[in-house]
Design goal:
Length: 505
């Protein structure tokens, strides 16, 4: 791609809206897709055209919009210079006027600060907030330090990028550019994000110098944004939760349904069988203030009122993990395993046998981790799935034990959950490379930047893209025969398959 002349989509729809702060220009590509939110991009520091290639890519997935801010790029001048909160209000006003419904709001560079304000102002109209290369680093909140950072960044950027920016910088003018820099330095993204009650995704490029402390704080704040306010725990309704979970599957009869505790290996098995997996437990994060992360009793005390409110509103719920799924009035089989990882070798062996019976190679392994799962592309790439419960040394040892006890794989791919901090018991990149070295021909990370792990926040998006590039691919198979799966698992010594009424033992 020529950065000086960005690749334009085949068709760009340009609109202008007269709003309180200015006449604002927006460019849109793509078509609306049922069930997929539209995306609204907020420009960077006085420049917008460089985001057109990103707009084109996003337009291949859903309807995507690129909004120019008042006084910048293609929008009209505001009645006075705006601060970052006012820029955020201008984007929120554009969203209200456009009538797009709930959208994903995404900002790049300095646009992340404005996107955060817009999302905080429109929580009911925002599905999620994306912060790509967020600014400003707290340790660089002065003009001299910021200029030094820009100079360092310029060494990594192609000359064409600066040339593409120049016309938009000229349009803004030096006085407005200086004002914008000062406005961004005065704004604190980390404080604004706390008021955003929707999921927040933080992305950084491979060469971005996102400080460790900033990255960890952004990771923590993004988790906070997904949690329920303690005072609203009593508003949760179990019937609505159950309806939401079941609504993810087509309404029809199924030969087999999984009910029980969460397990990544079980998700792969359910995908192969074409069967719904209905979790017996649901994670409901609740916000709380205070308490040390190493003091669980204090955390329990601080969360007690929220738990009592939840139970008072939902007497059918219990606040502990419950395994018993009997008494349903239907043929029931219990699949029992001592630890979450213990099911992974059995499911891997089942898939390998199933692939061979279908006449396709069974020499490609994909090891997923925690919530980083991709059952569909695991099947399409003919990969044998192995799920690790987390990025810990015990989980790594279990995977090595499995590889030592089975036929070698030609290809091994591995993804890792980046939890944002280096923690006790966590296996490092050199240790995980030992797993990849067991492959006979190719062992590689999938979606993992070894230099950024465990603060590799972009791995959540990158893993899917990289797995989808694996070749060759196989036709999507029909559902696995449940009887075949049951007979295979019944022969395993590491899991127990029990008929209803028989206690495990």
């Amino acid at each position: 791609m020529d950065i000086a002349h960005p690749e334009a989509p085949d068709r760009i729809e340009v609109t202008y809206r007269n709003l309180p702060h200015a006449r604002m220009r927006a460019r849109a590509v793509g078509r609306r897709v049922p069930g997929v939110p539209e995306i609204v991009l907020v420009q960077g520091m006085a420049v917008s055209d460089y985001l057109v290639p990103a707009l084109a890519r996003l337009g291949g997935w859903t309807r995507a919009h690129l909004v120019d801010l008042p006084g910048l790029a293609g929008s009209g001048d505001p009645p006075h210079e705006l601060d970052i909160a006012q820029y955020g209000r201008s984007v929120a006003a554009w969203l209200d006027a456009a009538g797009l419904g709930r959208v994903v709001v995404a900002g790049h560079s300095s646009g992340t600060q404005i996107a955060a304000h817009a999302a905080a102002l429109r929580p009911d109209g925002t599905v999620a907030l994306v912060l790509a290369s967020p600014t400003v680093d707290p340790v660089a909140r002065s003009i001299p330090r910021l200029l030094l950072r820009w100079r360092l960044d310029a060494r990594r950027e192609p000359d064409e990028l600066g040339r593409s920016h120049r016309p938009e910088w000229v349009r803004a003018g030096p006085r407005r550019l200086l004002h914008i820099v000062r406005a961004h330095l005065a704004d604190r993204l980390e404080d604004v994000v706390r008021d955003v009650p929707v999921p927040v995704l933080v992305l950084r490029g491979r060469e971005d110098r996102l400080p460790r402390a900033v990255g960890e704080k952004a990771y923590a704040v993004s988790g906070w944004s997904e949690a329920v306010a303690a005072g609203k725990a009593g508003d949760i309704r179990s019937d609505a939760l159950a309806e939401w979970i079941a609504g993810h599957y087509p309404r029809r009869r199924y030969p087999v349904v999984f009910l029980g505790s969460a397990n990544g290996a079980l998700v792969h098995l359910a995908a192969a069988l074409g069967a719904p997996w209905l979790p017996q437990t649901v994670l409901v994060p609740v916000r709380r203030h205070g308490g040390h992360p190493d003091e669980p009793r204090e955390g329990l005390r601080l969360s007690r009122a929220a738990g009592e409110a939840l139970l008072a509103a939902n007497p059918d719920l219990v606040l502990h993990h419950m395994h018993d799924v009997l008494g349903l009035g239907r043929p029931t089989v219990r699949l029992c395993y001592p630890e979450p990882d213990d099911l992974s070798p059995a499911v891997a062996g089942l898939f390998r046998d199933w692939y061979r019976r279908r006449g396709i190679p069974a020499d490609r392994l994909f090891a997923s981790c925690f919530v980083l799962l991709e059952p569909w592309w695991t099947l399409r790439t003919g990969s044998v799935p192995y799920w690790t419960s987390f990025n810990t040394e015990p989980a790594r040892r279990r995977l090595l034990d499995h590889l030592d006890g089975t036929e070698p794989f030609d290809e091994i791919r591995l993804t890792l959950m980046s939890n944002g901090v280096a923690a006790p018991g966590q296996a490092g990149i050199p240790a995980w490379r030992e797993v990849l070295a067991r492959a006979r021909t190719a062992g590689e990370f999938t979606g993992v930047d070894p230099r950024a792990y465990p603060r590799d926040f972009a791995s959540f998006a990158r893993m899917h893209r990289e797995l989808a590039r694996v070749r060759p691919v196989q036709p999507m198979p029909g559902p696995m025969d449940p009887d075949f799966a049951a007979e295979f698992l019944a022969r395993r010594a590491d899991v127990q398959l029990l008929s209803a009424g028989r206690p495990p033992g």
